[in-house]
């Protein structure tokens, strides 16, 4: 297959999966850029932060850090705490990204919550290059955030709005991604396990500290039940294939 055709085919296959991310990132990025502008940081700063940091939650927190007294230790600890979940993302994606060559560096850098939700659950269609499929999902999500942040910075210098409550868009985005997983029968058990682990850790550790314990509990649960989940997945696929053959 021609290299350019291979890339374009993968792009066409990847784009529809990123539409929910486009919707969420558009609103969140615009709000972030406008918030930066309201604190005296122009669109260029929003663009630079999104391109280099590319961490939605920590970027919102960084708005406060930039306007407060400089405390590098606090900033470091806060950043590590908020983004520690990416350690689990990265470990779980090692096998899937093993054949991506030099693309792996960008895939690692730009792996965020939403991109992980897609690349960990979506498989490329038959005949589509896996590495380019995951690459385009990652590039598109990255571009949505960067462009929206820059546009928000430009808009924020012209329009003054009350931004309170608009960050709920992120919650709505994850609801959509959860429903997408729920539509696939073989993904329902891990989805339910994720909800149960989150609820347990929320009750035990509280709203400010439950994310990392929940991810550890979920990782242990999934690893412990890996064989059973694999069997259930293969049985489901075998059943679907038998139905198609008939």
UniProtKB/TrEMBL annotation:
Swiss-Prot/TrEMBL keywords: Cell membrane, Membrane, Transmembrane, Transmembrane helix, Transport
Entry's localization field = Cell membrane
**Listed transmembrane segments:** 14-35, 47-70, 132-155, 161-179, 191-220
The membrane-topology field of this record reads: Multi-pass membrane protein
Biological process per Gene Ontology, one example term:
L-valine transmembrane transport
One GO cellular component term of this record is: plasma membrane
Task: Cite a single Pfam family from the UniProt record.
Answer: AzlC
Domain of life of the native organism: Bacteria
* Principal place of residence: membrane
Which InterPro entries does the UniProt record give?
A: Brnchd-chn_aa_trnsp_permease
Q: Work out whether the entry's keyword set contains Cell membrane.
A: yes
Which PANTHER family does the record cross-reference, listed alphabetically? INNER MEMBRANE PROTEIN YGAZ (PTHR34979)
Family affiliation: Belongs to the AzlC family.
Protein known as: AzlC family ABC transporter permease
